[in-house]
Design brief:
Elements (H helix, E strand, L loop, with lengths): L8 E2 L1 E10 L2 E6 L5 E5 L6 H9 L12 H4 L6 E9 L5 E9 L4 E6 L2 E3 L1 H6 L3 E4 L1 H4 L6 H15 L2 H22 L4 H34 L8 E5 L3 H5 L4 H14 L1 H7 L11 E5 L4 E2 L5 H23 L1 E2 L1 E5 L7 H13 L4 E5 L12 E7 L2 E4 L1
Parallel strand pairs: 1-13, 4-15, 4-16, 9-14, 14-15
Antiparallel strand pairs: 2-3, 2-5, 5-6, 6-7, 7-8, 10-11, 11-12, 16-17
Helix pairs in contact: 6-7, 6-10, 7-9, 7-11
């Protein structure tokens, strides 16, 4: 089969069926290649539909929740099916389920079980939701997790490295806490942690560099942004060889054993990174900006990521926007929509009412959600 390297790939979720998920018993949407606007009152389950889609791309999904909590209260498991097509009109049938009894999540593609890591390779996805908007005032871990989700779009193995890092760090913490005098195993763990820290930080730095040219050149009606790191391994990588940093980290892990045994965790490593987000229009860090300005900053970052990913991979990511148009003026709303259409992303939008600027958007599939039932809008 001939492969055209210049062919652009447009991902579309043709249909989704959600069963026993959150407050939904059984609900199905079939937009085909159209983008989607779901309109409904608060609490009817609009966000839950986006969450069901998002767990194919990132395990904890748009709400950063546990699978157990996604199951409908009176049910024992949930089931989500999606049909995904590309520009070549080839369809992939994905299914994911989670059971309270087994506490095990399964993912199948065309009836063959696969890993979550393999699933997200074919479903590049970005989103903005109320949870995401809290990254500016929340802990450094929220900003770090937000950044890592952007990195995974470009580097799917990033999530594998993060999981391996977390596993090694927990093993080291347990050894130190229990006073296990296994120096050789500690040395192996610390060597792995140093290598993983540098690899993870390198991917983060590379992603920020990919986004910089789009963030420094303002997207119309949205602020220019500077993204940087605070005293982190990523900062060091801009000036020091990776191998030198690995060697230093190994020594630092050794020196911090006594303190880490008392306090737990580790004082050093890629899990200490913090992302600094600055509004260049106001010359202010994001946490000092208004809530409306913070939303605009977040949109700028996600738009830049979508554009950079399209340029890098020639694939259009699917975009989920949960109540995104609140507090945005008409100019920003319209320009955001036009920009997303320009990169030919399929967009899934929720809103409490049908916005007037959607009226002439023929490539949108409009539906009302009432009492867990979808109706034509």
């Amino acid at each position: 089969m001939l492969n055209n390297e210049n062919q652009e790939i447009y991902n579309h979720i043709n249909s989704v069926r959600v069963r026993s998920f959150r407050n939904h018993n059984d609900i199905e949407l079939s937009p085909g290649k159209s983008s989607v606007l779901i309109v409904g009152n608060n609490g009817v389950g609009k966000t839950s539909i986006l969450e069901a889609l998002s767990i194919f791309s990132h395990g904890k999904g748009i709400r950063n929740a546990k699978f157990y909590d996604m199951i409908k209260n009176d049910k024992e498991s949930f089931l989500v099916d999606i049909s995904l097509s590309t520009s070549g009109d080839f369809s992939w049938c994905y299914r994911t389920s989670y059971s309270k009894k087994s506490r095990n999540r399964k993912i199948l593609i065309n009836d063959k079980e696969i890993s979550a890591n393999n699933a997200r390779k074919n479903i590049p996805m970005l989103w903005i939701a109320p949870y995401t908007e809290r990254i500016f005032l929340g802990s450094s871990s929220m900003r770090r997790n937000f950044l890592d989700r952007l990195v995974v779009i470009f580097d799917n193995e990033h999530s594998v490295r993060l999981n391996e890092y977390d596993k090694n760090l927990k093993q080291r913490t347990k050894l130190l806490k229990d006073g296990v005098n296994d120096l050789s195993w500690l040395e192996v763990l610390e060597d792995h942690l140093a290598k993983l820290s540098v690899a993870i930080s390198s991917s983060r730095l590379e992603t920020i560099n990919r986004l910089t040219k789009y963030l420094n050149n303002s997207i119309k009606y949205f602020p220019r942004i500077d993204l940087s790191f605070s005293g982190s391994i990523e900062t060091r990588l801009e000036n020091e060889p990776a191998l030198d940093i690995e060697e230093t980290l190994v020594k630092d892990y050794f020196k911090s054993r006594e303190v880490d045994a008392i306090l737990g965790g580790s004082r050093i490593g890629c899990h200490k990174t913090d992302l600094i987000i600055k509004n260049l229009e106001k010359n202010l860090n994001a946490e000092l900006c208004s809530s409306g300005e913070q939303k605009s900053l977040l949109i700028s970052i996600v738009l830049a990521t979508a554009i950079a990913f399209k340029e890098y991979s020639r694939k259009s990511p699917i975009i989920l926007l949960d109540e995104i148009f609140t507090h945005l003026d008409l100019s920003r709303k319209s320009n955001l929509l036009e920009k997303l259409m320009e990169i030919k992303s399929q967009i899934w939008v929720t809103a409490t009412e049908k916005e007037s600027f959607f009226q002439n958007k023929e490539n949108f599939w409009y539906h009302n959600l009432e009492g867990n039932k979808i109706k034509n809008a």
